[in-house]
Amino acid sequence: VEPGQSKPVTIAIDPAATNHPFGVWDYCTRGFVTKPGKHTIYVGNSADNTPHMATLTVG
Amino acid sequence: MEAWNQGTEEGHVVADLLLGVVNPSAKVPTSYPRSEADPLYAGRPERHPGTDEGDGYPVIRYSEGLQTGYRWFQAQGIQPLFGFGFGLFYTTFDIADVAVDAPDGTDAPIAVTASVTNRPRGRRRGGTGVSRGACGGTSPPSDSSGSRRCSWSRGSRSR
Fold first, then answer.
1. What is the C-alpha to C-alpha distance for residues A46 and B80, in angstroms, rounded to an integer?
2. Is the Cα torsion angle B36, B40, B43, B47 positive or negative in sign?
3. Hey, which residues 26-45 in chain A have their CB within 8 Å of chain B?
4. Which residues from B are below 8 Å from A5, CB to CB?
5. Sheet of strand B92-101, all strands in order from the earlier edge strand to the far edge
6. Residue B43 — left, alpha, or beta (φ > 0 → left; ψ -120 to 50 → alpha)?
7. Which distant-in-sequence residues (6+ apart) come within 8 Å of B66 by Cβ?
8. Does A52 lie at the interface with B, CB-CB under 8 angstroms?
């Protein structure tokens, strides 16, 4: 991004990625599961600076 | 400026950073506490360094569950000194026009788009986190699920 300029940026979140971005470990089934509900996606420069957010409903 | 694990080119690297030949781009890999009372092991020796439960050696209990790293600070509502991802640069970046495109929910990759503006120069990693707050007590407040370096520019001497 040149000084003073703007640029569109895309970050892809792959639900099938090995870090299981939407999954939690289910102890009973011994596997990762994606539970239904609202997921919030935060966008920002650090963990304590996320001025933008959007929700994603699963299930 | 703090330099860790320096190699033989340390002097050149630090000099280039201090003189602005290159823009610093590092970001801290975890949240740093503001107080000794803030870490998850404060007042909880069974979490660190462990306690003798009768067998003559210390045993560590991970009773914090999934609230590790920056998640501890978020789950407990503690403002860290430096949050995971913090870093200083010779510039600031504005993030705007954030949109999430998920036509197939979590059955296909999700695109998070934004417009990044360089004010006035440099580069910075943008980050996203995915929260599972609606899924119950076994989930951390958020995960760092993706990041992307947004490129940079510093004239002809950039590298």
1. 11
2. negative
3. 34-35, 37-45
4. 117-118
5. A6-13, B110-119, B92-101
6. left
7. B138, B139, B140
8. yes
The Cα A52–Cα B127 span in angstroms is 11
Report d(CA A13, CA B128) in Å as an integer: 9
The pLDDT assigned to B142 comes to 65
CA distance B38 to B32: 9
Nearest CA in chain B to A20: B145
Structure tokens at B3: 């330099």
Chain A residues lying within 8 Å of B91, measured CB to CB: 3
Task: Report ipTM (2 d.p.).
Answer: 0.80
Residues pairing with B41 in the sheet: none
Q: Which residue has the tokens 């870090």?
A: A19
Residues lower than pLDDT 50 in chain B: 122-138, 151-159
pLDDT digits (tens, 9 = 90+) for A15-29: 889 988 888 889 999
Q: In chain A, which residues have pLDDT < 70?
A: none
**Cβ count within 10 A of residue A5:** 11
The pLDDT of residue B36:
97
A7 Cα to chain B: minimum distance (Å): 5
Short-list B97, B86, B90, CA closest to B120: B90
**B135–A41 C-beta distance less than 8 A:** no
Q: Residue A49: its chain B contacts at CB < 8 A? A: 83, 85-86
